[in-house]
Amino acid sequence: MSLPKRHKTPTEGPIGVVLAESDPARRAAIGALIRQSPHLTLAAMPRDDQELVEWMHSGEPADVMVSGASIRTHRAERYELLGLARKLRPGVPIVFAMGSEIPGAVRRAFGHAELSLVSARDELARVHEAIIHAATGRRYISPRLQAILDSSPLTERQVEILERIARGEGRPEIARALGVSESTVRSHTKELYKRLGVNERAHAVAVALRESVIMPPRSRFTTDDPGADD
Fold first, then answer.
1. What is the rounded CA–CA span in Å between residue 122 and residue 107?
2. What is the DSSP letter of 95?
């Protein structure tokens, strides 16, 4: 059952939070934060994948879901539950606590515009800020993760092209996928080579992987999940 999308306003009372975190220490810390805040209330606290699925199907109300990177599915594909949450609960914003701070993983998660992002290493105050922002319809990226995004030597489009190069795509295929001309792809490629200090495809991919500018290529048949490389 999909619930209509809505955002909480400051006058409507405490924000109902679903805390989907299987790590005991983080669950206890964030749970205490929610209970102690006059602006928040704990709507549910599923401890594993099965309990989270049951909540998503239950129709019980909530304003925000906080999902830790330790939540796993019982199948091989990691973070599949985030995709299921977007499908079953499109009206509930997700604050995703990343366990990895590898630039490629952070950039990939950032590409999912519906997710607010914090690091598992962030202070609890940042988690609180993220919940408030998400509940009121605003995306939140913690300063720690934003600094990682800002440190990239490449633009987002250059990273996207480089990721496709790493998957073995040629210039015509990249141009079709991005809806641009081959000459545009060529220009971006020349510039990213210059920024990485290389002059050919294989070297560019090797440097980008070594510096975590991109993540190792994923299969084209896997789910496009933000934390798949954590």
1. 17
2. E
Two structure tokens written together for 137: 């319809």
Q: Is residue 130 part of a domain?
A: yes
- The pTM of the full predicted model, rounded to 2 decimals, is 0.74
Residue with tokens 């019982």: 74
CA distance 157 to 51: 39
Within a domain: 107: yes
- Nearest CA to 142 out of 121, 119, 120, 113 is that of 119
Helical packing angle, 80-88 and 49-58, nearest 10°: 10
How much is the average pLDDT of 87-98?
A: 91
Q: What is the CATH number of the domain that holds 204?
A: 1.10.10.10
| Host domain of residue 138 | 10-148
Q: What is the pLDDT of residues 161-180, one digit of tens each?
A: 999 999 999 999 999 999 99
pLDDT tens digits along 32-74: 999 999 999 999 999 888 888 899 999 899 999 998 877 654 4
- How many whole angstroms separate alpha carbon 149 and alpha carbon 49? 30
